[in-house]
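Morning!

As promised:
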Amino acid sequence: MAIIEVSQLAKHYRVYRKNAGWMASITGLFHREYNTVRAVKEVGFQIEKGEMVAFLGPNGAGKTTTLKLLSGLIYPTSGTATVLGYIPWQRSNAYRKRFSLVMGQKNQLWWDLPAQESFILHREIYDIDHDVFQRRLDELTELLEVRQLVKQPVRELSLGERMRMELIASLLHSPEVLLLDEPTIGLDVVSQRKVQGFLRHYQSEQQMTVLLTSHYMKDVEALCRRAIIINEGEIKHDGPLAEIVDRFSSVKQIHLQFAGTEIPEDIDRFGKVLEKIPPRVKLEVPRQDIPKILAALLDRYSIEDVGVQERPLEDAMAELFSRKNSDK
Amino acid sequence: MYRADFAFATLVRFLPIVTQVFLWGAIYQTTGPRDPKQINGYTYGDMVAYSLLVMVSRAFSSMPGLTTGIARDVRDGAIKKFLVQPIDLLDYLFWHRVAHKLVYYAVAFFPFAFVFWLCRNYLHGWPDLTMFTGWLISLILAFLVGFLIESLMGLCAFWFLEVSSLVFVYMLLSYFLSGHMLPLDWLPSPYGDVVRLLPFKYLAFVPAAILLEKYTHQQLAVELLQGFAWVAVLFALNRLALAHGIKRYSAYGG
């Protein structure tokens, strides 16, 4: 049975539209214009136990709104969803004890208190046995390398340290479902990798079901095999991450290293030059032309090394998101 | 930093009482030639005692930052953490406020005791056990009514987002309607009768009036029962506002 089941789920917001200027402000006191924003348009998907699924899309695509619906923060306009058999927006305590929501831009820790105090409050809120709590806290602080920092006020921690504390707070009650909204936003590369490594390890060990949104494709590639892509409130792709580039990218990259120290001047007639560092060059060429172009290059020039690569996931996603109304 | 702010705020709370003692002194010196001079049944000593007892009531009923805190959390999305955790928002706010008050009383007890000792000649002495018990219950009512009114205003943020004007109007009205400015038994009928039906009197007037022995035992029982009825009404309104507010909530702020 699926842990997360979403069917025909939609959320529409009524948003006030105000024109600029003081006249518009006065008019707005008596007559208001509203727009209906369809943040999520009848989406549907299922996630099985132990899956770690990336939920991708550009800003405003409806990712966070879907996570808010699944965590019970907001009510849907229509459709159904169940998580662990519960309807999220009924907000039963039994459900809230079994999942966690981590938002990269929001704190659940008390800003002026040491993280340890917030953890103890979590222990009371989630009714965690004292011994179990201590064991989990020791394990998590060890894995995330923050044991020395739990007695320091949260406001004095770096962003990376704070994010790791947020993760600890969200995992102390051993949630079966973890909803992660941009967990590495704003973090430096070292902190990002620490968080990624930890999530990979902990998820495989605990068999948690994880739904992750992130704009960092490195996170996604490091953690998820399956991706659901949402754009303009609709699901555009639901399947293996590896298929995204195949499916949505019309081009591939050819990496060449010439035998001499120079790059031929007419190289740009074979494709779009992405990077030129003599004697290396990176070309972008249409997918279907790869064999023909490779043959022509090898025939014409003395080439020491050649490689054909997919476009980076990030570029493929950018292409997909810049296309309007692309096929589902 | 926070300790200094807390200590300063605690001490500054005593300044208004000093000005009130001098103000009433000046007013009583200019009243008629009766001895002892009285205004509406209150001597100067009664007024000083009333002001001191109102200060105690307000220490229970005032809820600094409660309304604006709820509104801020709704507006910037910080309220999300309470909605996704197995915790009731109103329960949390209530116990958070109880903890805040207990710390405040621990710090303010000695300054309060010192001020009362300085003004000991104006106080009436201890009332009988029934009145004293009634006074303790009225302080709990002051806390409950103060908390429920301010949390209800905070929950209005689900509809209006900005509630600072509401807070301003409330502060203005409650200063008068709670009896903080003047004893409510000075108000003539029918205005006084209407004001005395409202819940605001529990914020300041009722506890002070009990210790000043303005009530008979029977009147005390009626006042306390009426207070608990208001608590029930305000509690129901809070629950209603929270249930409907959450349905309207759009979880702003990412």
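Chain A touches chain B through 24 residues (CB under 8 Å).

Hope this helps with the figure draft.
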